[in-house]
Amino acid sequence: MNYIILRGILIPFIGTSLGAACVFFMKKDLNLMIRRALTGFAAGVMTAASVWSLLIPAMEQSSKMGRLAFIPAAVGFLTGIFFLLGLDRVIPHLHMNSDKPEGRKSSLKRTTMLVLAVTLHNIPEGMAVGVVYAGWAAGNSSITATGALALTLGIAIQNFPEGAIISMPLRSEGESKPKAFVYGVLSGIVEPVGAALTILLAGLVIPILPYLLSFAAGAMIYVVVEELIPEMSEEPHSNTGTIVFALGFVLMMILDCAM
Q1: Does the pLDDT value for residue 42 go beyond 60?
Q2: What is the total count of domains within the chain?
Q3: Dihedral angle at the C-alpha atoms of 207, 209, 214, 219, nearest 10 degrees?
Q4: Could you tell me the CA-to-CA distances from 107 to 92, 95, 101, 104, 116 in Å, in that order?
Q5: What is the reported pTM?
Q6: What sign does the dihedral 106-111-115-117 (CA atoms) show?
Q7: 59-88: per-residue pLDDT in tens?
């Protein structure tokens, strides 16, 4: 069991690291069309994972509440939204293709704030992995090992472009390839750390598992709506992001339902 959990924790981080490694093999920065497609794909995967891997299991586990089974999912979802909103207001960060930092005023370097922006995206993903594996380890009947693996694989797939999206622009801004790679890897380290902490606190997690599953879903949807969709739809107008969003959504849906 410990091996299965360790593998589940590390798979998304490996996805980020492999994406960051693209800086060693690609000479030029990702063009707008590719960045838009990768961002749309990540948004689609995160949306589908939020529904099939988190919200639906949360409501299934609350089925004893009858018609009120939606309450844990609704409360957790909204709490996750406002939690990420709070982090977005507090942590200084800078999004790609933007010159105006968000969050509290800070003297941090531009590269550091770029990494913090992606790190914010990864917080809910790490929480989602940790909550799902904590539920599985506790013997929750609505969470299976293959279902948990489907979630980690989906997150790893969308982490690959995220790793490239952070390391490649840093290289184009003058950072060395090894340093750009390290920054890309560091942006994803919050995922295994957050997942491990959640699992270690499993005794506290299990009684409120439906709330935590939907909390992670809300946090992920916040990232999709607040950051990823605007980035994939920026000018000049293109349907690329929308098309790849659909492909990412369907892929994650298939992974979750098939496994």
Answers
A1: yes
A2: 1
A3: 100
A4: 9, 16, 10, 10, 13
A5: 0.83
A6: positive
A7: 988 888 888 889 999 999 999 999 988 888
